[in-house]
Amino acid sequence: MLLDAGFWADGGINFYARRYSRSETCISSMVLALVSWFRLADPRVDQLAQHVIAQQMADGGWNCRATEGYAGATHGSFHTTISALEGLLEYERFRPHTAQAAREAQARGREFLLLHRLYKSHRTGLVVKSAMTRLAFPPQWHFDILRGLDYFRASGAARDERLSDALGLIEKKRTAEGTWLLENVYSGKTHFTMETKGRASRWNTLRALRVLRWAESG
After folding, report:
1. pTM of the model
2. Which domain holds residue 216?
3. Do residue 3 and residue 111 come from a single domain?
4. What is the pLDDT along the chain (218 residues), one digit of tens a residue?
5. Are 169 and 100 members of one domain?
6. How many CB atoms lie within 10 A of CB 194?
7. What's the structural domain count of the chain?
8. DSSP characters over the chain
9. In terms of C-beta density within 10 A (0-12 exposed, 13-18 middle, 19 or more buried), how is residue 96 classed?
10. In this structure, are 7 and 105 located in the same domain?
11. Do 152 and 92 reside in the same domain of the chain?
């Protein structure tokens, strides 16, 4: 249904034809993650993966506003990049024998995030946006340090010193009870509310624990 409703001639996905004249990279990446996770046997899945890979920018990141018809961004976006990386990881798991390009694109994308220590300007060292240090679930299209770290863990990436700042911040957020809070909630449609902002979060606690265990084992 997602492919039938949104697949475009350029190989990407767009559900907003009246607003945009071509596919949208964030949405393409999210749909790639979904159809790959469900192991959908459809040739459009491979075309979609190729499209996402082709949207990677020179700095290794992705930005949905970099394409024609948008604002012409020249720097990768943390938000678009994490969606692309997650989508390509699911595709790699689905098509391990034909996913070399997806693996290479992920390596470049991880380097983009590492250059920024996941949440800082590579020029000034300052936090790019404070919201990226607050843990949300579900994160929707937004990037935060826990989402980024969980991707590094899931991808089997090597432990890198440039993750230390983000890992240290995650460790500091552990409460006296050994849990992590739901620090941020984004607006948007949801099927139901799972947790309450400001209280202990099962999802954030699960992800933080497995990220820290991965970091310690590396």
Report:
1. 0.94
2. 118-218
3. yes
4. 999 999 998 999 998 866 667 899 999 999 999 999 999 999 999 999 999 999 999 999 999 988 655 557 789 999 999 999 999 999 999 999 999 999 999 999 999 999 999 999 999 999 999 999 999 999 999 999 999 999 999 999 999 999 999 999 999 999 999 999 999 999 888 888 899 999 999 999 999 999 999 999 87
5. no
6. 12
7. 2
8. -HHHHHB-TTSSB-S-TTT-SS--HHHHHHHHHHHHHTT---HHHHHHHHHHHHT--TTS-B-TTSSTTTT---S-BHHHHHHHHHHHHHHHHHSTTS-HHHHHHHHHHHHHHHHTTTTB-TTT--BS-GGGGS-BSS-TT---HHHHHHHHHHHTPPP-GGGHHHHHHHHHT--TTS-EE--B---S--SS--S-TTSEEHHHHHHHHHHHHHHHH-
9. exposed
10. yes
11. no
